[in-house]
Amino acid sequence: MLFLLLKSLGEEQMNIGKKIRGAKGVDVSTARGFAVYNLEDFGGVGDGATLNTKPIKKAIEAATQAGGGTVYVPPGDYLSGTIRLADNVTLYLPAGATIWGSKSREDYAEDASLVYAEDAVNIAIRGQGTIDGNGPSFWKWQYGQWVAGDWRPQRVMRFVRCENLLLEDFTIRNSPAWTIHPIDCDRVVMRGISIINGIYEEDGPNTDGINPDGCTRVRISDCYVQAGDDSIVLKCTRRSARRECRDITVTNCVLITSETALKIGSESYGEFRNITFSNCVVRDAGCGVGLWMRDGGLIDGWVVSNISMTLPDSGVPIYMWCYPRVEGTQAGTVKNVIIRDVTAMGDGGIFMSGRKEEHLQGITLDNIRIFMRGKGKEKFHENPPYPFQLWGHKRAPYDIFCRYVDDLKLRNIQLTWNSPENPEWASAIRCWHIKELEIAGFVGRQSLGSGAASIWLKDVQGAFIHSCRALENTGTFLKADDGTKDVTLMNNELSRAQKTLELAPGVEAEEVFESSNRLPRE
Length: 522
What we know:
mainly beta; Pectate Lyase C-like; four-stranded parallel sheet; 2 helices; 6% helix; 50% strand; elongated
């Protein structure tokens, strides 16, 4: 069956190729019943030196006047300034065809993107070809890294208020800044795209991969994204009039970056609803899965699942942070978040923090396995001064640290320390200022020599800790610190711990109910 399907697709492509080589204006039927327009018939020259902005424009205009069609770019190297797509037009790049972004500022429209569309419907870019943004031509080397020059195109692709947008199978490389930026678009499919930029900031400034901004009904799948900034990040910026990211799926992607691989924020002026990230591989990222809520927006209904991460020595698997961009304003609301089935190797653990004024709500972490190298020597700042700086310090702890959360569930969490262990790593799980906490199926212990408890609760109102297992060399399993009340400790395997429970001064014994635990050996 697969052979027949591939054979059919191959024959179809060969037939299209034969028909395209015909005379100018030949009526070649496509799947939509539109004609195919060969760029060469409109003066296109693929020699890498001739500017093709006008021939591409003429081909798109011809297709538009006919009600739509496919602009075919034959194999070759085509230099171009801004390309503006129009309704019902597909730009098709076969293998061997490359569009190169011009190095001259005057070749770009005012929006400063290589490919652009505004208020367009039914537009597509497809094929096995390449779009090269010529990024290094717009940078300068300074302080041991590439930084933005005096001017650069702001995007390789920018789509504003477009509907039914398809980007499929082609490669984008050397973006001068953000790579793909759809704003206020609806019904967007990005499938099988490869984005190849430098991995580190010093390889190119702000070369984000895919940045849907205020978009709805978006499907991103089967993509390879190598970026010098965030790989795939959902935003609601001030540019977005809609300010709503809704009904979005990201799946089956390989993501390589020095920043965050899968992210929401930090521009969060609107609402994010019904979003899933799944089945992705993450490498080299400073952060695997990140959420930055800063501008008074809302996140409601976000599910992350089946993620495998191999992070560098400074990498943090999961980071969720609520902190206002402007002092005296609201950061926003985060609720109904599930992150499950994650394996990660990195330098940090998990950090999630609301604020005293704005708690995270309804957060579940399930089946998370973290191997923590802990090679970094920086100390995590638990209470950073305002304004909080994103760079220049360690942004996550060496453990699982949760603060200012209502309805927090930590299920089947396993944290493994690297050897030799640093006593400063301390507890495996810290939960501070939590209302309604469940810890189930935890396997782990504190770092050796720290004297800390494996689980440290501080100002926790209502906790149910069950079905956990203390590992060899566990000291104290649970510490209940200031303000902790109404704790149930039940059905835990604690025989390898030295001590079950430590109560801080001021915490009454009756605040912790113990039942059916296998207790430490005498």
